[in-house]
Amino acid sequence: MTFDLVLDHGTVLDGSGCDGRRASVAVADGRIAAVGDLADATAARRLDCAGKVVAPGFIDMHSHSDWVIPQPDHADVLAPLLEQGITTIVTGNCGCSPAPYLPGNQALLPLVGRMLHDHDLDYDWSGMGSFLAGLERRGLALNVAQLVGHGTVRAAVKGAEPGPAAPDEVAAMADLVRAALDEGAIGLSTGLGYAPGVFADLDELLGVTAPLKERGGVYTSHARSYIALGQSPTNLLALDETAAVWRAHGVKVQHSHLIFVGDRTWPTTDRTLEHLDHLRAEGVDIACDAFPYVGGNTTLVVFMPPWTLNQLRRVVTDPPQRQRVAGTLDRVLPSLGMRWEDTQILWVPRRELAHYEGQTIADIARARRQEPTETYLDLVGELGSQTRIMNWNYSGRDAEEGSLRKVLRHGACCFETDTILTGNGVDNPASYGTFPRLLGRYVRDLKLLTLPEAVRRMTGFSAERMNLRGRGRIARGLAADLVVFDPDAVGDHWPEGTPSTRPSGIETVVLNGRVVVDQGRFDRRVRAGVVLRSQ
């Protein structure tokens, strides 16, 4: 037979963690048709991969780009993901998914979407099924595996009302989760550090995750302990809360972006990872994910105590309430080792204030001749909850990244971008460099991981965690999602370059059998992605 494509003479790392072998990989009809000596095979196109690695396409375990992919220009915005080797994104994270879009959450979702994409969506869907069908109809630049967000279904039932849900409300949320799973969602996510998920108690979480056992879905959680703001939870308790879903239902649980916020928390890394090991040894089906930077993007109001989140403007303009919040921040943030110098504005919704983008809270405070906490509270009132920030104190700061390296090295750690990529404002460097940085800095240069193990965690292990059958491996009959990279050249360019500097060494990306990145450049006209539904 004549193959569509043959990748010749590369070192094939098949995603299993086994050592690579020199072989050729043939592609036909969107699938891997053969692996081995294909010198006599005929093909419509052959690429010489000698000296290069041929691996499965990378899986981004934690993406927020489901707020971008409904847009006609999403290929332009998301090109940096494909150009770093990503072929599949797991979306709907942190409790926020664009579907279901129902009367109860039609006030909340546009606010979330504005923060995650800068623009309003058309919302020409209601349930998960119509959302995913619309993506397929419009065409996708990469594969999408969609989670349903707990915050989305909670708002559909309870609006922005704080406090635990009543049993009948939990039952209504569970019905919405069940419907989303039946319509193609692969699981459920929670965002327990954000409203409205922050108001959920354990009974609510166990109730709303019950359909996962019935339908074989996965559970991912942005835990509530990363910035405790004077509450008692720690990363240990947060792991236990994630594990509680497994104990109740026996489903796979994924602890999203395991990070240690502020330098006072970094010494707890060993104890937290030991606790993760203990849970896994006990039989808990739990893993985690992380990004290879000491900074991550989030919303400006992430530091605000939960009781303020549905009344932000009133709180920051009412002197007694404002004083109460300021006292909390001035007490708790230093206790965590957090500094306003570490909090950088990435994007503001009010374009007349765009000059704040790139500045830290401390920078703005100096210009205003204010105490930084007062500046922060002023900015909450002026800019609102949709403003994006970068915190540069996650599991390290600058070159001090011992905590981060321990997390990345851990055998149960998958990898993610967790980036809010919109094409506007200051970029998170993870948008461009996550997987090249892992392969260059942490594998080749620092030898934190072996290359086969790193590729396994980027591909086969991630696919296994998310039940993405037929993805993440190189074997005959599986989907032809492939990446070709130069192991000697691959890498990102942070912090030497700008956050939006393109990576090096990612040469070719094949998505469902079609070459979508050629010589490092994504062909933005191609829509070769598919929706990966629950199976």
How would you describe this structure in keywords?
535 residues; alpha/beta; TIM Barrel; 2 domains; nine-stranded mixed sheet; eight-stranded parallel sheet; 19% strand
In short:
With 535 residues, the chain is an alpha/beta fold. The protein has helices at 74-82, 108-117, 128-138, 150-158, 167-182, 202-208, 210-215, 235-249, 269-282, 312-317, 319-336, 361-368, 372-383, 402-409, 430-445, 451-458, 460-465; strands at 2-3, 5-12, 21-28, 31-36, 42-43, 46-48, 53-56, 58-60, 86-91, 143-149, 187-191, 218-222, 253-255, 286-290, 296-299, 343-347, 388-391, 413-415, 482-485, 506-511, 514-518, 521-522.
Helix content: 25-40%
Average pLDDT score: 95
- For the record, what is the CATH homologous superfamily label of the largest domain? Metal-dependent hydrolases
* Strand content bin: 15-25%
Number of helices: 17
Using DSSP, what is the number of strands?
Answer: 22
CATH names the topology of the largest domain as: TIM Barrel
Q: Name the overall outline.
A: globular
Radius of gyration: 22 Å
How many discrete domains?
A: 2
Q: How far do the termini sit from each other?
A: 31 Å
How do the strands and helices of this protein lay out in sequence?
Elements: E1 2-3, E2 5-12, E3 21-28, E4 31-36, E5 42-43, E6 46-48, E7 53-56, E8 58-60, H1 74-82, E9 86-91, H2 108-117, H3 128-138, E10 143-149, H4 150-158, H5 167-182, E11 187-191, H6 202-208, H7 210-215, E12 218-222, H8 235-249, E13 253-255, H9 269-282, E14 286-290, E15 296-299, H10 312-317, H11 319-336, E16 343-347, H12 361-368, H13 372-383, E17 388-391, H14 402-409, E18 413-415, H15 430-445, H16 451-458, H17 460-465, E19 482-485, E20 506-511, E21 514-518, E22 521-522
Parallel strand pairs: 1-5, 2-6, 2-7, 8-9, 9-10, 10-11, 11-12, 12-13, 13-14, 14-18
Antiparallel strand pairs: 2-3, 3-4, 7-19, 15-17, 16-17, 19-20, 20-21, 21-22
Helix pairs in contact: 4-5, 8-9, 12-13, 15-16
